[in-house]
Amino acid sequence: xxxxxxxxxxxxxxxARGHEAHDLLRLKGGVWxxxxxxxxxxxxxxxxxxERRDDLEKDRLAQRWAxxxxxxxxxxxxxxxxxxxxxxxxxxxxxxxxxxxxxxLRNVLRSLFASMDAMREADLDGTQGFGLWHxxxxxxxxxxxxxxxxxxAPGERARQRRxxxxxxxxxxxxxxxxxxxxxxxPSCPEARHLVHNDLLNFNVLVDAEGVVLLDWGASIFGDFxxxxxxxxxxxxxxxxxxxxxxxxxxxxxxxxxxxxxxxGFAERLRCCELDIGVSHIAYQASRDEWxxxxxxxxxxxxxxAAPL
Length: 308
Prior knowledge:
The protein is α+β, with helices and mostly antiparallel strands. It has 2 domains: about 5-90, Phosphorylase Kinase, domain 1, CATH 3.30.200.150; about 95-305, Aminoglycoside phosphotransferase (APH), C-terminal lobe (Aminoglycoside 3'-phosphotransferase, Chain: A, domain 2, Alpha-Beta Complex). Helix content is about 45%, strand content about 20%. The protein has 11 helices and 12 strands. It has helices at about 5-15, 55-60, 100-120, 145-150, 155-165, 170-185, 225-235, 240, 245-255, 265-285, 290-305; strands at about 20-25, 35-40, 45-50, 75-80, 85-90, 95, 130-135, 140, 195, 205, 210-215, 220. Strand 1 and strand 2 form a beta hairpin. Helix 5 (about 155-165) packs across helix 10, helix 6 (about 170-185) runs antiparallel to helix 10 and helix 7 (about 225-235) packs across helix 10. It is globular and about 55 Å long.
């Protein structure tokens, strides 16, 4: 749950640390953090209060990959706070991607795909491992395949299944998704790329220059197609807003336009989609988000049964 803090408390916290903060405004979004925009002098900033300092440190590490194509706010300060940690970054003014209408989203797809290309091409020298990485640059899994099926110790999938089996959701859709993933696994290469893994849910801002990627806490090392799957898996959730856009088709046309060959694209995409599905069924059920978990379970089952 996000750190609980009022604007007055945040202002007192900042002032106690030497910041002449004023005009605090709580920002929306953030499952794990509470964020406020504020001004100091003639500059605008954002302070986030987070229960996990590691997530803030990941934002700082991600700046090594920043470029004109991969824009992310600069972190200026990280420190401890009573309920975890805080981080101060330069504020980027823009509209959340999630709030765009269909026409505006079409206009920004080129910038979004350019950012995804920059992540695919990012130099990961000095990092290691697969899956969720930490501020030390180390992923928690030894291989991409294990990140997907998660059967090696500590055996996360078994724990997730036990919890779902005892819940009102049940484990049928989870089992179907995981079984199909195992069938598709041979098509998934042991490729290490930078993956944001949270391109929706108010983690991308759009300004006059294009997109800006926020919050690298969920970022992983693995197949770059995973970021495509983040879009395609959740796209039906946005059907009323963006239903006229064939996002998979747009991605495939983009890759074709830059001459990028993608062996096993359909199999890799489906395996990543199913990983998103089975992981989120368990996550949403653990938070008692039963309506969301039901939607995700149905989406996962449909993808497990659908042709590639």
